[in-house]
Amino acid sequence: MNRLAYEKSPYLLQHKDNPVDWYPWCAAAFARAESEDKPILLSVGYSTCHWCHVMAQESFDDAEVAKILNKDYICIKVDREERPDIDAVYMRACQAINGSGGWPMTVFMTPDQKPFFAGTYFPKHSRRGQIGLIELLEQISRLWEKRRRSLFDAGEQITAAMIGMQHMENGEPSEKLLQDACEALRGSFDPRWGGFGPAPKFPMPHNLIFLMRCGETDLACKTLTAMARGGIFDQIGGGFSRYSTDEKWCRPHFEKMLYDNALLLMAYTEAHARTHNGFYAQIAERTLKYIIRELQSPDGGFYCGQDADSEGVEGRYYTFTPEEIRSVLGDEEGKRFCRLYGIDAQNSIPNLIGSESDPWPSDDARIVRLCQYRKARARLHTDDKILLSWNAWTILALAQSGHPDEAIKAQRFMEENMTDRGNRLYLRFRDGEAANIGQLDDYAVYALALLALYRETFNAEYLEQAVFRAEQMRDLFEDKDGGGYYLTAHDAQKLISRPKETYDGAIPSGNSAAAMLLEHLAQLTGDGKWREAADRQMRFMAGQAKSCPSGYCFAMLAMRKWLDPSRELIVCGSEIPPELKTLRRSGLNILYKSAANAPLLAKCAPFTADYPIPARGTVWYLCENGVCRKPASCFEELEIGYTHS
Questions:
Q1: 3-class SS string, 457-513
Q2: Based on CB atoms within 10 Å of each CB, which residue in 100, 321, 397, 540 is the most buried?
Q3: Is residue 578 reached through a cis peptide bond, with omega within 30 degrees of 0 on the bond before it?
Q4: Residue 309, pLDDT score
Q5: Residues of the chain above pLDDT 70, percent
Q6: Using 50, 70 and 90 to split pLDDT, how confident is the model at 638?
Q7: Which helix (H) or strand (E) holds 517?
Q8: Secondary structure E strands in 365-491
Q9: What value does the mean pLDDT take over residues 356-384?
């Protein structure tokens, strides 16, 4: 047992019995590297990562590898989900060195944290042209002994290059940027199977939402349909796997992540709202049920995800032979299932590819029996730490899909368990402990989630909290000189660079979320400070996106809102009128004012102070692009057209 036994991270705990003398990221590790004059091996991964497991089994559990590491290196293990700042810094180094990155990430660096070599997965021994970890360790040990200056020089050069990459120019938001993003996605679209580019294919739900809001609903819905009928969607238990290894969406990499499923819940909810196709509502509902059933903690927070592997085999939990199906369902129903879901001697992954038939409902007794069978057959590892930003995406998805009770339960968990005495946010909660000060994504996405709760409930306290978290975000993370927002707060632990993440990968970046948040606040509150902040952020993101707009689709969504005419609806009355329920996802910026909430609403949106509350009934004030219509005493007089935001 090594030092990782005292950590809370499920990923670090998976390595506590390695023969490697691991440290968590801490000052003691760097002090020892300095005093013993040794290089550092940094290994970054996460607990549901298949190739992290492979490298651990091949190398970190191996006595021969451990002997070399313990003799010549100081070894540090980091959970990328607990420390996205460390991951961001060294992933940038890995990409600078190799042109790409991924996990596990393997970094060699000096005692002053400067990387001189980096890669991802290494087998124990060299094979098929790829250097093995043992051979790499031996080479670097020799260089450290005989040509150390070259390693230090490489570390200085790589660090300087990383810092130089932080220089970012502003641009101007425009329809052309949005059109360029759409055109790039259209150009890489797979017309046969949906999705974009060759395999492997990733869901990228924010890209699909962007396409729907820019009039490319057909492309988005073809992709959403193909994914939902493929093996990437769990046809038995609901929810989506991380990505598909083939072009048909049939053969997934089986790990399931909270953020993917939350964002996909948003995408399928929007597809249903736009098309009224009940299939999308069904997939949204089954994804929601998966999140609640498998990932919700008893206290209301949501766990990170579930592993691809069970019993040491990737996908074992999710795959079936025809014989297994028949043994569970009986011969006749088993054959029927196998015909519908494509199970035969060549394929063991349930899917509906090529079928026009509807899937069996999730509460069908046959589906329930298969769920129970596979749970008894194999166990899935669940990463049970709770990350604030991922929970915030989930709260946002739950609110937008019309499930405020579960969203409110999770939000209360955040407030009660993941804030400190100064009302700052923590990044992670597990086993009764909150840890690691919140980063940009935590504040930006959580404030967006609070705004979604306000839109769903019209409880002004959520609006007040959203404004407060946005103010914290601005004060803690904004780069007032260079534009945009840093990933880490100004008082956070110092690393060799202070990352500023802008690209929308599997999850929208914190800067894209900040752009969306600031624009929503500017339109909703009418407060000039938020308008100025939103304009600054839009110009910053326009500058980042101009070389590859399709890589910034969540920022493009914010820009779509920035470019479109704003529409505000102020509703004044003694009680919330039922018609507001139909307007929650209409694209309007809606404020509800009553005698009870008037002071709080005026604090958040000062312009509302002048709106009178009628003695009886409701008055509706609709304004469009800076022009206000005549007040209406009847909802039907408004003639509101629908958009989405």
A1: HCCHHHHHHHHHHHHHHHHHHECCCCCCECCCCCCCCCCCCCCCCCCCCCCCCHHHH
A2: 397
A3: no
A4: 85
A5: 98
A6: confident
A7: helix 510-525
A8: 382-383, 386-387, 426-430, 433-437
A9: 93
